[in-house]
Prior knowledge:
The structure holds two protein chains of two kinds. Chain A is mainly alpha-helical. Chain A is built from 15 helices and two strands. In chain A, strands 1-2 form a two-stranded antiparallel ribbon. Chain A is globular and about 65 Å long. The two termini of chain A are about 15 Å apart. Chain B has two domains: about 55-245, Penicillin-binding protein 2a (Domain 2), CATH 3.90.1310.10; about 250-285 and about 320-615, DD-peptidase/beta-lactamase superfamily (Beta-lactamase, 3-Layer(aba) Sandwich), CATH 3.40.710.10. Helices cover about 35% and strands about 15% of the residues of chain B. In chain B, helix 3 (about 95-105) runs antiparallel to helix 4 (about 110-115), helix 11 packs antiparallel against helix 22 and helix 15 packs across helix 17. The longest helix of chain B has about 35 residues, at about 1-40. Chain B is elongated, with a radius of gyration of 35 Å. The chains are: A mainly alpha, B alpha+beta.
Amino acid sequence: MAGERAPQELLLLAVALAFVAVNAVALSLALDGALAIGHFWAPVFWTALMGASHWLLNRYQADRDPLLLPIYALLTGWGLLLVDRLAPNFLARQTLWMVLATGAMLLVAILPRNLRILRRYRYTWLTVGLLLLVATLIFGVNPSGAGAALWLRAPLVSGVYFQPSELMKLLLIVFLASYFDEQVQLDALRTRRDGRTRVAFLTPLLLMWGFCIVLLVWQRDLGAATLFFLTFLALLYLATGEWRYLMGGLFLLIVAGIIGYFTFGVVELRVEAWWNPWPEATDRAFQIVQSLYAIASGGVLGQGIGQGSPVFIPVVHSDFAFAAIAEEWGLIGSMAVLACFALLAYRGLRTAALCRRPFHSYLAAGITILLCAQAFLIIGGVVKILPLTGVTLPFVSYGGSSLFMSGIMIGLLLYISARRAVEL
Amino acid sequence: MRFEDRTQNLSARLGAIQICALALLGICVVRLYNLQIVHGDFYRERAVNQRLHSLAIPAPRGAILDRFGRVLVDSRPIYDVILQRETSRNPDLDGLSAHLPTVLEIDPDYLLERFAEIKTNPAYKSILIKENATVGDIAWVEAHSLEFPALQIEQRPQRHYPKDGLLAHVLGYVGEISSQQLEKPQYKDSGYKPGDVIGKKGLEATYDEYLRGREGHRTVIVDSRGRIRDVIGIIEPRPGQDLVTTLDLDLQQAAEEQLRNSPSQRGVIIAMDPNNGEILALASYPTFDPNLFTGRIATKEGRAEYAALLRNPDTPLYNRAIQGRYPPGSTWKIPMAVAALQQGVITLDDSRLHCGGGIQIGNKFTRCMGNHGKPDLHTAIMKSCDGYFYRLGLKMGLPGIMRMVDEFKLNEPTGIDLPHELVSWTPSPEFKARFNPQAPEWTDIDTVYASFGQVYDFVTPISLLRAIAAVGVGGSLSTPHLLKEVRARGNPEEESYRPPRQYAGVEAGVVRMTKEQDGAVVKAMWSVVNEAGTATGIRKDGFDIAGKTGTAQVVGLGKDVGRNKDHSWFVSYAPAFEPEIAVLALIENSGFGSRHAAPAARAIYDVYFDKGRRLNEEQQIAQVPNR
């Protein structure tokens, strides 16, 4: 089997490499009018890493899904180009994080037994996650100055920050996957024959809802709260097959949104800027209106890398990276990003479906759902079909913690996708 | 078996989730297609919807010079550190917030507030990081221009006032126009707008229209995305016109030095040309540093400094020369003498009145400082005989004293070209009624008090100086003023040319009296310094000073110490019979007029005399370079 899959992956990686290389040349010409070394060292690092990943994975996980690495490669490579284009000061830092993320991805994908560790110590992970949350509530800072204080300053090294909510995402998925696995095995989460629901289902539902409300109230972290809750709902549905929980959960989400609208300035602002940004286009809704202008100016083929004006959108390099893609690569580029996430959803959920062990299924599905839901939240926000929630576009946006955790998640997916073949 | 079933179920559910995911991504596809293709033109049109923007270029404010062209105030460039986003890409806020608080000494919270502005401001607006950067700040910013290209230095003219509060009350200071000022038609209709810098006090306020110039504009086309598309025109700012004042910096410095070294360090010295009202020096002490209001006031320390100035019991912010009301004491005898002669209460041939060591009115005896027998007017002024003037006042009566006040215009503002001048309080039945509601009727004892410069007489130093200086020049009252000339600006052929403008004061009138009457009072004032009077200690050979001392009791009349000590006055002019310069000195709470005020005035005369008595001469007037 290995013999059939590896060339497929290599071919796709070559396509990604071609894309990154062409764009690096174009960016260099557009910004400096000549080939400048400054625009090439990051892509060179990236190429080396992706080549090494391919080689190592061939050696240790021959039966992995051949689409996952190319998707990861294309999106991170695109992300590096964007950081170079939009916020070159951050390029070195982002490249470093990319190296770390890819290293972590490989470690997770290659080391044996890691799923067992994850599963066995699930309450430890949950405790660690909650402690980090409490620590952020107390010691949180915001390195860019303004906004919600969602970061922890790294000890010893100055200028390094970590966003615990990124780690929380993975810990939450691991905990939920093992928890549901356990509950299903105990047959506790099933409906009674008479069709009535057991109260036991409601407890985790309400607990999770409460947890997300805490995130929202104390941290004003709208994005993470929404994302956690959506992922939880999807996993709950997956484990129980109950539509009612899904509906009930969405109802709770809307209730929380309405309460938030009347209680928190942040939520009210986001909702109003989403519903009708035009009255405040030069003030509070400035960002979203600028984003719409940028996207629209992309047209079909885009302005070309380095030739649009995406930098006029405030903080474009993190929350609005997708708007920059839409402006400079046009509809083609934005469709390509969407296609990448659609493929990720397809391959990730397929991996989940093929697993024999429910824990693996839940884990793979959870990771896939989280990454795709996050992509949908921010893309939906940037194109104004949803209120802005302030999450990053996975793999693409500037942001070390997010990239690092996304790498680990892809590593887990690779690992699970290879395992199932062995276990079959 | 059940396990198998569930696995099948799981695949079905995963399928359902997959369909959901594809549906949601499908919504994004439709939306993007709409945004980028179907309605693309709508947004593109809105995005290039270009607006004209006018970016102000501040006009350098005119300088203020002394009468010989020496610079008293001008505008110097100061430097602000700004975050400029028009040409550079997204600033490295992490790096900036790590470095700026320490290297530029910026409060981290303030920095975060500034950074928050980035999200809501279009790119062509730069963001102020630090005002008034030091040389070290500028060096750091320039050294790190590769690392932080968005951090830049912007130059801006700022008013620079002399050190040690020199001339603070005369020059005043500038500040941002207040919302109350903006509501007044005088400002609203002359094109002032919020954020404008305007003269708040002193000459800066009076002559703001000349000093401020007119700001220039850079008219740019900005599209909806904040990009500057084109610069379609620049209107250069028109610098303000320079002001040449009547002040003589040497005399001013001497005056402030006298006050600084006086016992109470509180008081007023004014030097004026009695012939035309040109103010040569005008000092009020204590003083303050006007630079506070142009720079430091924005900081916490600056606001504390301002609060301390407002609380200070010595009222340093207030210009005692035009806003202080003081009992004039014996200096009041000069206008009284002129008025008595003019009104015929006494004549030059028959001016003798009893001193009596004081006067008994009802059951109250009001003392004279000595017993002068039956002096004539000359002796009464020379010796400052209170008893003489009690009787003179009684003969004139309240109507006579009020007519004198009218004649010397002591109950009117002098019209000096400084804002917020106050009017003296002078004797009248209404004043008595207001002053003492228990016994509102004017009585003889009140007339006695009013006739020697106490209780009912509170004059501003400037109005008293004008009145007494008029005696020296045959009775013609002048309007004290500080403006000599507003200088021309620019080239006469150009449209932006501003012509010069001389001071055009109004005639203040003449105190009616005969030459002989005037001569007698002048002679008496001469004798105060040069014969056997109260100020012979300041006699100056070859330069005859004529003056009158005053020792004014402070109302309350408690113990004669501290703030209850008498005010020391000396009002004078010289040379006595053809005056070129008149000097008033008032030292608060320091006792006899001859003791402190007269020597202070003498010091001013010395400086004037040593300079060669020149006020207008051919001395080369320095030109302030055109900016």
